[in-house]
Write a structure and sequence with these properties.
It is built from nine helices and five strands; from the N terminus they run αααααααβββαββα. The chain has 208 residues and is of the alpha+beta class. The chain folds into two domains: 8-41 and 48-96 and 195-206, Orthogonal Bundle (Ribosomal Protein S4 Delta 41, Chain A, domain 1), CATH 1.10.1050; 99-187, RNA-binding S4 domain (Structural Genomics Hypothetical 15.5 Kd Protein In mrcA-pckA Intergenic Region, Chain A). The longest helix has 16 residues, at 52-67. The chain is globular and about 55 Å long. The chain starts with 7 loop residues before the first helix and ends with a helix.
Length: 208
């Protein structure tokens, strides 16, 4: 499985916004976006005006890095969004938001989306009482998500949830009182997706 091996904080600095790639650290004064305003690299490119293509490209990169997907996965998701009825940009965001690794991050089972992917890949999660180890699995309305019935898995998930209990839970998800059972109340809408992105720019770039 492909993965990012570069320093994650450099990705946030390049986009100029917090992508929450390092979980709780992103909310502390240690966050590099708050401390260092310049983009990474030897050349000081602050104030450099982007071309029209550059503006579109940066929005696409921001979206990919926020959800932790690579180009091939992103193209597959975009093609799926195009085939659906309705606004392609909104369809794309909803498909990315429905990924299991993103849902686990929202529930607090992982400190970041990459951590949530690790939890899934190691076989700690079940959906509707069936083990799922695919991070790109798309959840559906009514799905029940919880750790597999093993002591180590339950203990780890409980610790993760308790360690980050200040996280805002989206209105389309519900977490049980014990923090071990998440439920998808309904599929997310565009208004319920918190990422600050101009999805129409992404659609215009990918449609060329």
């Amino acid at each position: 499985m492909a993965r990012h091996i570069d320093p994650k904080c450099k990705l946030c600095r390049r986009e100029g916004v917090k992508l929450y790639l390092k979980g709780i650290r992103c909310e502390t004064p240690k966050c590099s976006v708050a401390k260092r305003k310049n983009v990474p690299g030897q050349l000081k490119r602050r104030g450099r005006k982007l071309s029209d293509y550059g503006i579109h490209f940066r929005e696409k990169q921001k979206l990919k890095r926020f959800y932790g997907v690579f180009e091939r996965q992103f193209r597959h998701c975009f093609a799926k969004a195009e085939r659906k009825k309705g606004n392609t940009g909104e369809n794309l965001l909803i498909l990315l938001e429905r990924r299991l690794d993103n849902v686990l991050f929202h529930l607090g089972y992982g400190f970041s989306r990459s951590h949530a992917r690790q939890v899934i890949n190691h076989g700690h999660i079940t959906v509707n009482n069936r083990k799922v180890d695919i991070a790109s699995y798309l959840i559906k309305s009514g799905d029940l998500i919880k750790p597999i019935n093993k002591e180590d898995s339950v203990k780890m998930i409980k610790l993760n949830v308790d360690s980050d209990n200040n996280r805002d839970l989206p209105s389309w998800l519900e977490l049980g009182d014990d923090g071990l059972e998440g439920r998808v109340l309904h599929l997310p809408t565009r208004d319920e997706i918190s990422i600050n992105i101009q999805e129409q720019l992404v659609v215009e770039l990918c449609s060329k």
